[in-house]
Write a structure and sequence with these properties.
The structure holds 2 protein chains of 2 kinds. Chain A is mainly α. Chain A has a single domain, classed as Cytochrome c oxidase-like, subunit I domain (Cytochrome C Oxidase, Chain A). Helices cover about 65% and strands about 0% of the residues of chain A. Chain A has helices spanning about 5, 10-15, 20-25, 30-60, 70-105, 115-135, 165-195, 210-240, 255-285, 295-305, 325-350, 360-380, 385-390, 395-425, 430-455, 475-505, 540-545. Chain B is an all-alpha fold. Chain B has a single domain (about 35-45, about 60-195), classed as Four Helix Bundle (Hemerythrin (Met), subunit A). Chain B contains 6 helices and no strands. Chain B has helices at about 20-45, 55, 60-85, 90-120, 130-160, 170-195. In chain B, helix 1 packs antiparallel against helix 5 (about 130-160) and helix 5 (about 130-160) runs antiparallel to helix 6. The longest helix of chain B is centred in the middle third of the chain and has 33 residues, at about 90-120. The interface between A and B is large, with 57 and 45 residues.
């Protein structure tokens, strides 16, 4: 008999020193702790990338601004984009999946727990490599600091001649290493979802989020290696003097664009599909209705995954491809709006006739429907080749992709954080602060990014550090910059909310939202082993079956 | 909670092996990296401004011998897996050793070919686009062969120490999948470099 068994009321965490507790986090293979670390690292980088964005907006608030110099501005937009995609979006989404998927499918842990820990630390190492460039990239050349070649690092800008020093090498290695981490996590998620489901959890009873993560994982293992391959080529060019993208010796800068965007466009769906998954869990619970058209949602997800592999060159309409290629990629891009539209209608169909509860997760979900549809419509506009010729590389494009990625991914992450925070910590986030946060972020977001569409149409190119006065751009840029202040106020409220709620938040209990999926069947926070006994499910909504034993969901399966 | 553990209505859950799923995913991801280099190779065929060109320097004799060695090593690997499954460890190590020897022959042959290209034809990775794409594509494959050889040698060493039992056959089988993948990629590389590119 051990000491712990004599004092079962003292949690092991409290009795240990800080060092021992940190060591426990460093060596853990528990999917929940790894997921929490992913989310925490993601939030830290979200703040860093936000500061970078705010510095750009400070520079652009007025014509001929003098806040930062041009070279710093180039580093800011490169690091902002790279950080948001690889160090915020990827870890937050994969991390939340890491935390939730085993709980949702009734598993003890991921399929490969140690590989899971390996993936997290690869991500952390990659992130450190990228940011180490600020102090280490000068190398022997004494030039350049952080990467300044844009987040898609077009050749020949990345050539040794135009990018001396080591900043681009840090960009390559940081992203490559964190990419290896993403690939291992995707492999793990695929194996977990396919193999670790509890008895009764057939594929068509999976929570929609699990379905979306399944498709996302397939996209990750197809798309990220292509970026890795292209980055290996770039690294060989830069360090061994090869000629892949060296236009002086017959290399092609267009090849880099094709390879990068073959990764880059599926990456957009890798970033947005998990958010779709969060909304597909949140919207039914807060509408008190079953998700509308479950099989169609699954089919639309798979269709989006498939089509997203064939649209990449719509990022390249301005480089002068043949009319046939332009037509193909314009058509495939328009095609992808069909399954996306199906999803939007299904979410609305879920809400129609429901008893909607506008708690904070649902506020984000409702706002997402409008914002994402708006961003999707400007996306369809940009799929039209002549329209892109006019507006390529303008602020219209910046506005468009912030509407889909901020309004989709980031709103999804916050919706999910408010929804699952009680599960992970045992305490509710404050609804009052949460609603303030939502409205500040919503207003600030629209104030920042809607005027960008206008300044873009008026001819403002992206990635320029200043603009001349008297071009009619001042008002729109000033509005965008004011929006950032409102967003920053919102984010501060969120941080405050987390800090307060962790100590004083209302105790959540197992199932604070009266939800239906398996993660709410266990305690909040769940024990290390997740479930005391392996659950067995009889329908897609196992907790409904428990709460309504006279009318279990399995009676209605196959009708939707 | 207790209601969750009651027996569910009879409903079979399709549940594949996690190792197989993991290996299939790894192979898919690796294939995409190779595909990137194959596309680059095909894209740059005939675009080298200066010589040497593939038709002038690539010789088929040695590479065909090399290919035969590597492809046969897939069959010997299958034999080794089957023998371990059947509990015949002694013969398994023999066939595994033959597999490793064939793989090592391939590595040696490639090094010989490369040194010839560099010595006799002055073809280096920096020489022209052909050198760049040739050494990187074949080199990426060679790297995978070497990784496979290290893994297979580890199994052989552990086997000779008596640590590998027939119950480890599924894991060994997965390793052989990786080895088959490396062989299959070689067929693609061979067709790309020595048939289409020449």
């Amino acid at each position: 008999m051990t000491l712990a068994e004599h004092h079962p009321t003292i949690p092991a965490e409290v009795s240990r020193t800080l060092g021992a507790r940190l060591h426990g986090w460093a060596v853990t293979v528990d999917h929940k702790r790894l997921g929490i670390m992913y989310v925490c690292f993601g939030l830290i980088f979200f703040v860093i990338a936000g500061i970078e964005g705010a510095m750009m907006r400070a520079q652009l608030a007025q014509a001929a601004g003098k806040v930062v110099d041009p070279a710093t501005f180039n580093q800011l937009f490169t690091m902002h984009g790279t950080t948001m995609v690889f160090l915020v979006g990827m870890p937050m989404l994969l991390g939340m999946a890491n935390y939730l998927i085993p709980l949702m499918i009734g598993a003890r842990d991921m399929a490969f727990p140690r590989l899971n820990a390996f993936g997290l630390w690869l991500f952390v190492f990659g992130a450190i490599l990228l940011y180490y460039s600020y102090i280490g990239a000068q190398g022997l050349y004494g030039t350049s600091a952080a990467p300044d070649v844009g987040w898609f690092a077009y050749a020949p800008l990345t050539n040794r001649t135009f990018s001396p020093g080591n900043s681009t090498d840090y960009w390559i290695l940081g992203i490559m290493v964190s990419g290896f981490g993403s690939i291992t996590t995707a492999i793990n998620l695929l194996a977990t979802i396919l193999v670790m489901r509890c008895p009764g959890m057939t594929l068509m009873r999976l929570p929609l989020m699990a379905w979306m993560m399944l498709v996302v994982s397939v996209l990750v293992i197809i798309a990220i290696p292509v970026l890795t391959g292209a980055q290996i080529m770039l690294l060989l060019d830069r360090s061994l003097g090869m000629h892949f993208f060296d236009t002086q010796n017959g290399g092609s800068s267009v090849l880099w664009q094709h390879l990068f965007w073959f990764f880059g466009h599926p990456e957009v769906y890798i970033l947005v599909l998990p958010a779709f998954g969060f909304f597909s869990e949140v919207i039914p619970v807060f509408s008190r209705k079953v998700i509308f058209g479950y099989p169609l949602m699954v089919a639309a997800t798979v269709a989006i995954g498939f089509i997203s592999l064939g649209v990449w060159a719509h990022h390249m309409f301005a480089i002068g491809m043949s009319p046939a290629l332009n037509a193909f990629f314009a058509a495939s891009t328009l095609l992808i709006s069909i399954p996306t539209g199906i999803k939007i209608f299904n979410w609305m169909g879920t809400m129609i006739g429901g008893q909607i509860i506008f708690a904070t997760p649902m506020l984000f979900a409702s706002a997402f429907l409008g914002i994402f549809t708006f961003g999707g419509l400007t996306g369809i506009m940009l799929a039209v080749v002549p329209f892109t010729w006019q507006l390529s590389d303008s602020y219209f494009v910046v506005g468009h992709f912030h509407y889909v990625l901020f309004g989709g991914t980031i709103f999804g992450i916050f919706s999910g954080l408010f929804y699952w925070f009680p599960k992970a910590t045992g305490r509710m986030l404050s609804e009052r602060l949460g609603k303030w946060f939502f409205w500040l972020l919503f207003i600030g977001f629209n104030l920042t990014f809607f005027p960008m569409h206008v300044s873009g149409i008026l001819g403002m190119p992206r990635r320029v550090y200043m603009y001349q006065p008297d071009r009619g751009l001042e008002l729109w840029n000033m509005l965008s910059s004011i929006g950032v202040i409102i967003q920053a106020m919102g984010i501060s409220l969120f941080v405050l909310n987390v800090l307060i709620s962790l100590r004083k938040g209302k105790v959540a209990g197992n199932d604070p939202w009266n939800a239906w999926t398996l993660e709410w069947a266990t305690t909040s926070p769940p024990p290390e082993w997740n479930f005391d006994q392996v659950p067995t499910v009889g329908s897609a909504r196992p907790l409904w079956d428990i709460k309504n034993p006279t009318d279990p969901d399995s009676n209605h399966e196959g009708i939707s | 909670m207790s209601t969750l553990t009651k027996p569910a209505p009879a409903c079979d859950v399709w549940r594949p092996s996690r190792g197989k799923i993991g290996m299939i995913c790894l192979i898919t991801a690796e294939s995409c990296i190779f595909l990137t280099f194959v596309v680059a190779y095909l894209f740059y065929i005939g675009k080298s401004a200066t010589g040497p060109q593939p038709a002038q320097v690539l010789e088929l004799g040695l590479v065909i011998l090399n290919s035969i060695a590597l492809i046969s090593s897939s069959f010997t690997a299958v034999a080794a897996v089957r023998l371990l499954e059947g509990g015949n460890q002694g013969k398994c190590w023999l066939w595994l050793a033959i597999t490793i020897a064939l793989g090592a022959f391939f590595v040696g042959g490639t090094i010989y070919e490369w040194s010839g290209l560099m010595r006799d034809h002055a073809l280096y990775p920096t020489t022209n686009l052909f050198g760049t794409t040739f050494y990187s594509l074949v080199g990426l494959h060679l790297f995978h062969v070497i990784v496979g050889l290290i893994l297979l040698s580890t199994v052989l060493a552990m086997g000779l120490l008596g640590w590998v039992k027939p119950r480890h056959a599924p894991a060994f089988d997965l390793l052989s999948w990786y080895w088959h993948f490396v062989d299959a990629v070689w067929i693609v590389v061979f067709v790309t470099v020595y048939v289409i590119g020449r």
